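Bumping with the actual sequence this time:
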Amino acid sequence: MAETHRYVVVEGVIGVGKTTLVEHLSRALSARMVFEEFEQNPFLASFYQDKEAFAFSTQVFFLMSRFRQQETLAQGELFAKTTLSDYLFDKDRLFALLTLRADELSLYERLFDVLKVQVPRPDLILYLKADLDIVLSRIATRGRSYEADMDPGYIRALGEAYDAYFQGYQGCPVVTTDTSRIDLRTDQQALARLEELIRTGGTRAPELGP
């Protein structure tokens, strides 16, 4: 049996259930949590209103905010206990590819490449996905004002980008879970199987759902 995964990342599009899962697993495993600081981004609300005008400032703020968090992890006792994060640093580039102009992307990627090599790599990624209508319903239910007019086409494109990225990801094992028919707030069996996956150092997706 492998050792417990020490650094686990939960990823997926907006509204797919990342925060719910990280919070549950943290309680079950006595792990520390790392959440991306999206509400601190002063450009985010404007970005959802005018993507072209605010894409670069929004993306660079996120890049630096995520890097500061990851730098803190790398300097601290990362492996002293299990750490659960609701984002993978590399995913920042997926958003950049969708939103930045060619000249902006060129500048962004120079900065991204310098920072990427300095962040710790996860032991396991739990990739959550769901049907578009389910994701949009969850976004509407949580009632964040700046997400009220979110473009479904943008969410669809983001989901496709995630799928393509993780199909070829080689950095660590990736376990994919479709949450379209699994409520991670209440499905105790599904949650218990994901907990066991982390505890045992597993790398294969557990059987979840009905």
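The tokens above came from a reply further down the thread. The two ends are 27 Å apart (CA to CA).
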